[in-house]
Amino acid sequence: MQKAGTGQAGDDGGGLKWLYLDMNAFFASCEQQMRPELRRRPLIVVPVRSDYTCAIAASAEAKALGIKTGTQVKLAKQMCPGLAIVDARPDLYVDIHHRILDVVDTVMPVEKVCSIDEVACLLMGPQRHEAAARALGHRIQKRILERIGECLTASIGIAPSRMLAKTAADMMKPLGMTVLRMDHLPGPLLGLEVDDFPGIGAAMKGRLFKAGISEVRQLWHLSPSRMRQLWGGIGGDNFWYALHGVDPPETVTERHSISHSHVLASELRPVEAARPVARRLTVKCGTRLRRMGLRCGGLHLSIRGTASGRAQAERVFPATSDTFRLLEAIDDMWHQCVGALNQPRIQKVSVTCLRMIPADTPPDLFGYSPAVQEDGRHMKLLKALDGLNERFGKDRVSIGPRPKLHDFVGAKIAFNRVPEVEEFWE
Question: Subunit structure, briefly (predicted)?
Answer without folding.
Answer: Monomer.
